[in-house]
Amino acid sequence: MRLVETSSIVEGAVLGRTIYNEKGQVLLNEGVQLNNKLIELLMIKGIHHIHIQDDKTKDIKFHEKICPKLRLEAIGTIESTFKQIQDEAFLSNSFVIEKASKRYTELIRSLLIELKKDDELLALMSEVYVYDNYIFTHSLNVTMYSLAIGMQLKLSQKELETLGLGAILHDVGKMKIPEHILLKPGRLTLEEYEEVKKHAEEGFHLLRNVQTLPLLVAHCAFQHHERLNGTGYPRGIMGNDIHEFGKIIAVADVFDAVTSNRVYRQAMLPHEGLEILYAGSNTLFDSKVIEAFRQSVAIYPIGLTVELSDGRKGVVSRQNIGLSERPIVRILQENGAEVSPYDLDLRDELAIVIRNCDTTFKNE
Length: 364
Known about the structure:
41% helix, Hypothetical protein af1432, five-stranded antiparallel beta sheet, 3 domains, globular
């Protein structure tokens, strides 16, 4: 199985992973042979990368860290709560959250069990799920990245649960932003951006009145857009004035934002998202948090075609725990010529690094 750009697929390619919609319904099953009409449909749906099967990588499998049933259940809970808050008929938005808080706590505990059950790196390739509203899946993705970081930083179970609650509700304030701005399929005007920025403070005010949640959960919503150098919002606080959870969610939030498909922008690949974070290390983002993220999240996803510094080309076949930038690569080419496939563990080849990535379909 390999990860390729949908636009580069030729008719007859075979889908390597099932694609679902937000209701858990199958859009396309694994093993389906793609024709031009289906390829066009995937592009219209905003699915820019998919996994396909080929003979040389057919044994390479993508590991789903969180089971689809739990993922869809979590998104359903987020959607239900957020839409009730959006509905003006509800007199107390804080009451809506308070009523759902027990369910959110149970979800966070279930997610932690899933994340802890094996040593696999977390990899969220959102292209296999199609959602009508980005906010709901973003809230869950940010939660999983935040929990992975927190686990790497050795936070206690109680701290992880509070962090998870802060992450899953970090964008709840967006439900108070006019929908035509929130779902605008294009670049926001300066006035619209100022309106969107209000969501951090709106979220804080919503959550601080919820008696069944720690006050720190409200501060997660308040601080997830703050930056170490004071250039963030809404208060422009700096350095140690930002809580550790705010710093964690900031990293998770930015990474998921740039690596998820949006109507107006194609998703970056994970290693490109990491470069964005490193560019802001110790100015925008806490370097300790970035390092914990790097060690717990798969930067080069399974199936990605890569070129090594010695000129060899291949496909990422497995991950090395704690060394996300040094995976195991199934070598397919040497010196521009095809070779009998073999696996190269970059953990044991320290002089060799990944130089380039390629997601265009090539039948090597």
